[in-house]
């Protein structure tokens, strides 16, 4: 009687996506709402020490900063892209901050 070869279990790949916020990272915006073209100050912690942090507004790059020796940055000025000026008042958006695999986001509401 012929033996059937044993099947090995399927390989499973684990992929890290920058779309999944890191539990260690935190991002805050001040103010929490504003108009297209307006300035927002971003502060965060939990990023790699001396890492470059890239900021996005609804996926559009709006600036960057370098985290300090303990992975923090404070009151980095960025501008809401003018291209969102036609959005309805009260529209919620997301501001993100990424450094390598570390990602955090904060909500931002567009006003007129």
Features:
112 residues; Immunoglobulin-like; five-stranded mixed beta sheet; mainly beta; 0% helix
What does this structure look like?
It is built from no helices and eight strands. By secondary structure, the chain is mainly beta. It has one domain (26-110): Sandwich (Immunoglobulin-like). The strands form two sheets. The protein has a five-stranded mixed beta sheet with strand order 2-8-7-4-5, with no helix packed on it. The N and C termini lie far apart (79 Å). Mean pLDDT is 86; it is low at 4-19.
Shape: elongated
Distance between the termini: 79 Å
CATH architecture: Sandwich
How large is the share of residues in beta strands?
over 45%
The assembly state of the depicted protein chains is single chain
CATH topology: Immunoglobulin-like
Give a nutshell description of this structure:
With 112 residues, the protein is mainly beta. 0% of the residues lie in helices and 46% in strands.
Protein topology:
Elements: E1 26-30, E2 33-34, E3 39-45, E4 52-57, E5 60-66, E6 73-79, E7 92-99, E8 102-110
Parallel strand pairs: 2-8
Antiparallel strand pairs: 1-3, 3-6, 4-5, 4-7, 7-8
């Amino acid at each position: 009687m012929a033996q059937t070869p044993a099947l090995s279990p399927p390989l499973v790949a684990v992929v890290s996506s920058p779309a999944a916020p890191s539990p260690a990272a935190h991002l805050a915006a001040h103010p929490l709402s504003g108009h297209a073209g307006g300035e927002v100050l971003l502060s965060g912690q939990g990023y790699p020490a001396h890492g470059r942090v890239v900021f996005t507004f609804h996926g559009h790059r709006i600036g960057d900063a370098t985290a300090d020796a303990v992975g923090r940055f404070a009151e980095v000025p960025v501008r809401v892209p003018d291209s969102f000026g036609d959005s309805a008042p009260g529209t919620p958006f997301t501001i993100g901050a990424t450094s390598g695999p570390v990602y955090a986001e904060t909500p931002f509401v567009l006003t007129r």
